[in-house]
Design a protein that fits this description.
Blueprint: H1 3-26, H2 47-71, H3 83-114, H4 119-128, H5 132-151, H6 163-174, H7 187-199, H8 210-217
Helix pairs in contact: 2-3
Length: 218
């Protein structure tokens, strides 16, 4: 066989091999499935968020594979900067941002639950931006305010005894004042209140007025 014929046959075989590899490579995309090492909460209080998260991942994976097989574009590591590639990368970024947004909600929820929170506490935090401890404190303050409204008039004289005075004493003792925790408005309680009012730039009359009460709740 003449050398020229051999050369031509090798060239033909080379082109055939190249085209076969190109087609095979086009329809066999590299590992494209989105993965995360983060721990997510699959028992999130809103099941729709979990469903949307997994659907967003599926949409992202499908888009990556489509761009690779149909347009020969790896949107994660693009080699070109033509208009088609630029648009594909933009759409990929938008889809990835959707996955990341939903994932952050589920990761944060999983983190809260690892600290002992339940779904209701997470809902409260997301709505009020307050931790369970902060919400508990707010509720306690609300209850004490109800006590103030109900018992204020009966808590201003020496010898008075009620649950509001008891809570006031707890607040004063927590700040270092020495007195009995008995719910009785005795001289020691009045003196502590007057001292507290003086330190907080309030009129030091030792009475449980609204300004003194609000200062104690802070």
């Amino acid at each position: 066989m003449k050398p020229i014929i051999i050369f031509l046959l090798l060239c033909i075989l080379g082109f055939i091999s190249y085209d076969f590899y190109k087609d095979w490579n086009r329809f066999h995309a590299p590992e494209y499935h989105y993965q995360t090492d983060a721990t997510i909460d699959n028992d999130y209080h809103d099941p729709a968020v979990v469903m949307d998260y997994h659907a967003a991942i599926q949409d992202l994976n499908s888009f990556i594979k489509l761009q690779w097989t149909a347009n020969d574009i790896d949107v994660r590591l693009p080699e070109d900067d033509d208009l088609e590639t630029t648009l594909a990368v933009k759409h990929y970024s938008q889809k990835l941002a959707r996955v990341t947004y939903l994932e952050q909600k589920l990761v944060q929820s999983a983190s809260y639950k690892s600290n002992g929170w339940n779904n209701q506490q997470i809902i409260d935090f997301e709505n009020n931006h307050s931790s369970p401890e902060e919400i508990k404190t707010i509720k306690q303050k609300s209850l004490i305010k109800q006590l103030y409204n109900n018992h204020w008039e009966n808590s201003q004289r020496i010898g008075a005894k009620n649950v509001l005075i008891f809570e006031i004493q707890k607040k004063l003792i927590a700040q270092g004042y020495d007195m009995s925790l008995d719910g009785v408005f005795a001289k020691a309680t009045m003196e502590a209140l007057a001292n507290f009012e003086s330190k907080n730039n309030l009129f030091p009359d030792g009475k449980i007025d609204v300004l003194t009460f609000e200062a104690l709740l802070k």
